[in-house]
Design goal:
The chain is α+β, with helices and mostly antiparallel strands. It is built from 2 helices and 3 strands. Strands 1-2-3 form a 3-stranded antiparallel beta sheet, with helices on one face. A hairpin with a 7-residue loop joins strand 2 and strand 3. Helix 1 crosses helix 2. The longest helix is centred in the first third of the chain and has 34 residues.
């Protein structure tokens, strides 16, 4: 019985940790949203999460080379919008253009990369909640 109780305690601790991390992540994400100028393209912070995804060109988002510049490329934040009523369902939207990747200030580049990772972290929670709610349809 104690092993079941121990597993429950561990699970509770993990869930609490995730919620704390999520809350802190959202706070920092909103600060970065203003700092790097995304607020000029997307007026309301919560509207960011209406995009299907946000990608980055010009720098790596892979864990083993996070933030590494791609020579000859332009640093740009691209969002993928989706309109189910349109003929062409998905549409790329530029949220920020920063010029040639190798000439962008290192601190700004790092903030841009951090913004993308923090956005994806929050978006994963939103997706998880969405599918959890959908599963409710299958309960008997």
């Amino acid at each position: 019985m104690s092993s079941a109780l121990d597993r429950l305690k561990l699970l509770t601790t993990k869930m609490s940790g995730y919620e704390m991390a999520r809350k802190e992540n959202l706070k920092i994400l909103e600060e970065l949203y203003s700092e790097i100028g995304i607020d000029k393209k997307v007026e309301n912070f919560v509207e960011l999460f209406e995009f299907k995804a946000i990608n980055l060109s010009g720098a790596s988002l892979l864990s083993e080379s996070l933030g590494a510049i791609k020579e000859g490329k332009y640093l740009q934040i691209l969002a993928i919008g989706y309109d189910k009523d349109a003929v062409v369902k998905s549409k790329n939207v530029s949220l920020g253009y920063f010029g040639r990747a190798e000439s962008v200030d290192e601190e700004l580049k790092n903030k841009i990369v951090e913004f993308i990772i923090r956005y994806r972290f929050e978006k994963s929670f939103i997706t998880l909640e969405h599918y959890y709610e959908m599963l409710e349809n299958f309960k008997k």
